[in-house]
Specification:
Helices cover 31% and strands 20% of the residues. The chain is of the alpha+beta class.
Length: 359
């Protein structure tokens, strides 16, 4: 490989082209992508470049030949150093059946932090136990579980993808989800505003319906967790928050069996601009009216204001803009009817002239 040169010879050094001279490594490896091929490279060499753990023995590897198109499967403990690869070959590492991940636990538990889980096996009850259990001041009825969408950077890339391909694939999945939602909404018997409202609700959905008090009972069905879940345990400060159109908004000490009227009295009663009174439950976030309400610690009492009674300059400006828009709409509607009347009158006049001419 080191010949002598003669006068007039031309030496050409070709540029490295990944589309012609690379080996692609993808799947469950830390650094997927296209790697330059060198003479004598083996599957073990490429897996080492991709950061694969070749001693775990739990995953399997597929090597697809670019020349024959045939694929062979190996275990990571096999002699992959004897498996030579050629340019444009593809190596794919299959993830182990056991999907591991982590769950973040925040709030009033004894040991907040991040805990390892096995998807399909670890339950919410297991995670609470790992975190040392709930503290005495935990608001059990206010606990919620936040779940991240699957289209995330932690999703294992497909075969032969580099970092740019992974980002493009993530964006494509998100666009596909959005397109699928749009297609479903198009088929729904909803008006435009209702479709937009439902689309926003679908995008914001991320909480798992959860009743921790029931889930922690002996014999309760396990609530399985997933990688990236976030468990939040708020503090029970023994108060009910009263906000809105009351004279003294703020937190009021919770009293057993106290009525809505008792809390409103403690908050200085309602103002002349007060409208409907709601109770927002801490656990479910449900809005209850006065007739259905029994305030408990952690709940929120909200006194809405009357319509067209803004108490801020910005809200007053919005109310004026809304009235102006309604007035403009009425004016435009009147102008349309005037124009329609003019057209009808012109047609009637033309028809009368036509009849007189015929006679």
């Amino acid at each position: 490989y080191n010949p002598y040169l003669n006068d007039g010879d031309v030496v050409r050094v070709g540029a490295y082209d990944p589309a012609q001279h690379a080996v692609f490594v993808g799947g469950a490896v830390p650094n997927p992508g296209a790697f330059p091929h060198r003479l004598g490279d083996t599957a073990a060499d490429l897996l080492a470049l991709a950061g694969a753990n070749t001693t775990s023995g739990t995953d399997s590897v597929r090597v697809t030949s670019s020349r024959t198109g045939q694929a062979k499967h190996y275990a990571l403990t096999d002699a992959l150093a004897d498996v030579t690869v050629q340019p444009l070959d593809r190596i794919h590492v299959y993830a182990a059946v056991e999907l591991r991940g982590t769950v973040q636990v925040e709030g009033r538990v004894r040991y907040p932090g991040t805990y390892p889980i096995v998807e399909g096996e670890t339950s919410l009850q297991d995670v609470v136990a790992q975190a040392g259990g709930l503290r005495p001041d935990a608001l059990v009825r206010g606990v919620y579980l936040q779940r991240q969408p699957r289209a995330s950077a932690t999703a294992p890339p497909s075969e032969g993808q580099d970092a740019a391909d992974v980002r493009a694939s993530m964006q494509a999945r998100l666009q596909a989800d959005t397109l699928n939602s749009a297609l479903n909404l198009r088929l729904a018997n909803l008006d435009f505003l209702s479709r937009m409202y439902l689309a926003d609700e679908l995008r914001l959905s991320g909480r798992v319906a959860l009743d921790l008090s029931e889930a922690m009972q002996p014999g309760a069905a396990p609530v399985l967790v997933r990688d990236g879940d976030r468990l939040v345990v708020p503090e029970d400060d023994g108060t009910v928050l009263v906000v809105g159109q009351v004279n003294r908004p703020g937190r009021i000490a919770a009293q057993p069996d106290a009525s809505m009227a008792a809390y409103l009295t403690a908050a200085g009663l309602t103002t002349p601009q007060a409208g409907t009174v709601y109770l927002i439950e801490a656990g479910t976030g449900q809005f209850l009216t006065v007739e259905e309400a029994t305030p408990q610690t952690g709940d929120i009492i909200f006194v809405d204001r009357l319509e067209d009674a803004p108490n801020q300059i910005a809200l007053e400006r919005l109310a004026l803009e809304r009235e102006r828009a309604r007035y403009d709409q009425r004016i435009r509607r009147s102008q349309i009817w005037v124009q329609v009347g003019s057209v009808v009158a012109a047609l009637a006049s033309a028809y009368s002239t036509y009849l007189l001419t015929r006679r």
